Amino acid sequence: MVYKGFIIFIILGVIAVIGLVTFVFPMLLGLSIGTKGNSHAPSSISEVSLPQNATLPDFPKNFEPSTAKVVIGFNNKVRWTNYDIVKISVLADDKSDPGFFNATHSGASNEPAYESLLNSYESFEYTFTKTGEYGYHCSIHPWMQGSVIVLQQVE
Questions:
Q1: What is the reported pLDDT for 10?
Q2: CB burial class (10 A; 0-12, 13-18, 19+) of residue 92?
Q3: Do the Cβ atoms of 45 and 128 come closer than 8 Å?
Q4: What is the CATH number of the domain that holds 115?
Q5: Which residues in the chain land under pLDDT 50?
Q6: Per the count of CB atoms within 10 A, which of 17, 25, 27, 93 is most buried?
Q7: Pairing between strand 67-71 and 145-151?
């Protein structure tokens, strides 16, 4: 009987540690860890959603979160998903990350690339590889702005 109680105690302890590592520590560090559906497992993709009505100028939340914090080697792939019925774009503000700029712009123009122009329920993904803060906006709805802060993984 004591042996069975000890096993249950150990199992509950392991579950508590997994919960701390998976949910509490990332929240305390301000990391944006994306999950889909009802899954509670950590993901290597950080989610930025555009909820319904996000394109309205007075809507308080357009890119959600408006600032995504990611860590290289952990969750540095960002996925923007449009849940609004209106088309939007994801367009890098500048060339501080040339890869992000090229992935979101059509050539050297200020027009969005086909991949970053999102109809309803479409997604665009980009993997950040350089630390820094990278702003972006919607070329169709200029009041829609956000940023990604890319941090170096601490070893």
A1: 75
A2: buried
A3: no
A4: 2.60.40.420
A5: 20, 24-42
A6: 93
A7: parallel
Supply the pLDDT for residue 67.
93
Same domain, 7 and 59: no
Q: What is the pLDDT of residue 2?
A: 64
Cis peptide leading into residue 26 (ω within 30°): no
Structure tokens belonging to residue 7: 């096993």
Let me know whether 133 and 82 are in one domain.
Answer: yes
Secondary structure of the chain as H, E, C letters = CHHHHHHHHHHHHHHHHHHHHHHHHHHHHCCCCCCCCCCCCCCCEEEEEECCCCCCCCCCCCCECCEEEEECCCCCEEEEEECCCCCEECEECCCCCHHHHHHHECCCCCCECHHHEECCCCEEEEECCCCEEEEEECCCCCCCEEEEEEECCCC
What is the reported pTM?
0.69
Residues 15 and 65 in one domain: no
User: What is the residue range of 20's domain?
Assistant: 1-30
- pLDDT of 30: 45
